[in-house]
Amino acid sequence: MKPRNNGKPDGEDEQRRLAVLIDADNAQPSVIEGLLAEVAKFGVASVKRIYGDFTSTRATQWKNALLKFSISPVQQFAYTSGKNATDSSLIIDAMDLMYTGRFDGMCLVSSDSDFTRLAQRMREEGLIVYGFGERKTPDAFVQACDKFIYTEVLRAEPLPTAPAKTRSTKPAKAPAKTAAKTAARAQGNAATDIATSAPNPASTAPAKPAVLPLPLELLRRAIEEASDEQGWAHLGAVGTYLTKIRPDFDPRLYGHKKLSDLLKRHPRYFAVEERGGTGVGSKSIYVRSLG
């Protein structure tokens, strides 16, 4: 295989080159913006492909997302009813990309356990595998990845709905009885318009994922493994250990964006201490279990 740095000296290109492969049958377009933003934390998405039968009505909602985010569609017809040919097409492309030697990692976007062996094979070859899927993803696929992110935490918050505006109507010059009937009819029409045109927030807003309970024993174990003789552990080492033993660990599942925020939220169980200078980026965070 070719060297993954394309012959460049070490340090010339420090960002990881990633290939993002999306299973359209097992992913939702509503998460694609947050998903690509998450991928950008790990490296550069040099390849972005999505696999599916785009002649089917199930895949039509992906069309706008493909244009907006420059994702290359790979059309895959269903050769037999009830059989999924998309998986095979994605796996073949993934192996071809792997053997080019141009990539440092793969992002597999699916909740399908059929990609478990693919993730294992890529890790055997030395690639970093990032998985993206819903919480229903089988644990076998989750554990086969170096890091797994549940797409429920990537959905954008719905924007507040503006109240419907109604036009003010001036009463027409008419006899008293006729004017009263006209006003009553206008009020009735306005009420009907508001009822039919105003969106229902409950029906348009995506359901927020339930916040999981604090994984107390898991956090204590990670701190213990990374701690010094006084019981203090560097937060970065704790996070690295958590990812190794639980690829799907994500503080956002527990209601916090950062691991430090999660630990600070529970002073009964954890002590959090900042050490270092006053300059930007010079401080380090250390944590210790209490009790």
Name the features.
9 strands; 2 domains; 3-stranded antiparallel sheet; Nucleotidyltransferase, domain 5; 291 residues; 6-stranded parallel sheet; Rossmann fold; single chain; 18% strand; alpha/beta
Quick take:
This protein has 291 residues and is of the alpha/beta class. The protein contains ten helices and nine strands. 24% of the residues are buried.
Question: What is the CATH T-level topology of the largest domain?
Answer: Rossmann fold
Considering DSSP H and I runs of 4 or more, what fraction of the residues is helical? 25-40%
What string gives the helices and strands in order?
EHEHEHEHEHEHHHEHHEE
- Described by the principal axes of the CA atoms, the overall outline is elongated
What's the level 1 CATH class of the largest domain? Alpha Beta
**Helix segment count?**
10
Mean pLDDT: 80
Number of spatially distinct domains: 2
Structural category is alpha/beta
Second CATH tier, the architecture of the largest domain: 3-Layer(aba) Sandwich
CATH superfamily of the largest domain: 5'-nuclease
Q: What profile does the largest beta sheet have?
A: 6 strands, parallel
| Rg value | 26 Å
- Compute the separation of the termini in Å: 52 Å
Beta-strand proportion? 15-25%
Could you tell me the number of beta strands? 9
Question: What strand order characterises the main sheet?
Answer: 3-2-1-4-5-6
Uncertain segments of ≥5 residues (pLDDT<50)? 6-13, 158-169, 190-205
